[in-house]
What we know:
It comes from Streptomyces aquilus. This protein is mainly β and 117 residues long.
Amino acid sequence: xxxxxxxxxxxxxxxxxxxxxxxxxxxxxxxxxxxxxxxxxxxxxxxxxxxxxxxxxxxxxxxxxxxxxxxxxxxxxxxxxxxxxxxxxxxxxxxxxxxxxxxxxxxxxxxxxxxxx
Length: 117
């Protein structure tokens, strides 16, 4: 997900759907917007090798009945978590202000969001 400065292109939304089983996503499989949906299963997302430009926002939406989100990001990335789910949000620390932002919209019955830096 590397963008060159000044390049304007329409944002792309990737959609991953499964009934049972989660999704494993990394920088090679993500674009500016990603929707992952499953009846039972979480999302394991590794963004440690992704070059997100400062000020850019990467949006990931997770829909599931049962299943949380495990997110790995670099130390300079700011993470915003929204949505409704039973289970909390665990974040090891804030990212740098003004840096890139990853926004997680997690909607589900059971499952939390775990952010590791």
